[in-house]
């Protein structure tokens, strides 16, 4: 089982007192960035409170059954009937697109993702099977039960521009951070050094149901059972650490901020192979990549 980088709880970026002042079920990170935890994954809301219809963006679309929680939080945060201008994806794993098709249809919005994620989002390819032999923990052992089949939002899918811009998110740019998935991206706003990293790294031991429930802050590499290229994952974490962010919002676990977070992130980047990479595993020995097509399985 890989190790973790402990983080002082004072590095948490969410504020329970500030959250209690609102009633939208989200946790504010900055004035215009908040997240809501959906069972085992986070959905991120980008936009000023009260932004109204088409005045905000949803980053990732949670797990199956999470539609009501997302729409309720959006309505309370942005206003009655307020739809986003777009749904933007870090990647297309089942716990990030669980209600994507339903939300995209109901809200009549475009879906933005990296070109290398397209086969998973237009129904033409499935993700490789999870590897339950890595990481230990209940969720890791149950991972073969997790769905890998693609969703199909091809009619609404738009590819992120090659220049790094994110059309529905002014002031943000996307960074290609593969390893966990071929077209995984993170979103970076340099003006306040805010980073939305999806599953490039996480702040909980996602393989462990106990750790997921407890949510104690600690830095980990990407969830092991679905990571298919550990060399690329290492390079992605090092690229993100080099940005020296002020705050990070991950797909799993609590957001973190400040010097203590940066110390832990630098430690994870420097010692990634020992801390994050399993000693053995299906994709440790035989990584899968987009370039040779091995990352794309035939859908059932």
Automatic annotation (TrEMBL):
Q: Which residues form the Metallo-beta-lactamase domain?
A: 40-252
What Pfam families does the record tag this protein with? Lactamase_B
The segments labelled Disordered in the record are 1-25
Q: Which domain of life is it from?
A: Bacteria
Which residue windows does the record flag with biased composition (Basic and acidic residues)?
9-25
Sorted alphabetically, which SMART domains does this protein's record hold? Lactamase_B
The record ties this protein, via PANTHER family, to: METALLO-BETA-LACTAMASE DOMAIN-CONTAINING, METALLO-BETA-LACTAMASE DOMAIN-CONTAINING PROTEIN
The protein here is known as: Glyoxylase, beta-lactamase superfamily II
The record lists the lineage as: Bacteria, Pseudomonadati, Pseudomonadota, Alphaproteobacteria, Hyphomicrobiales
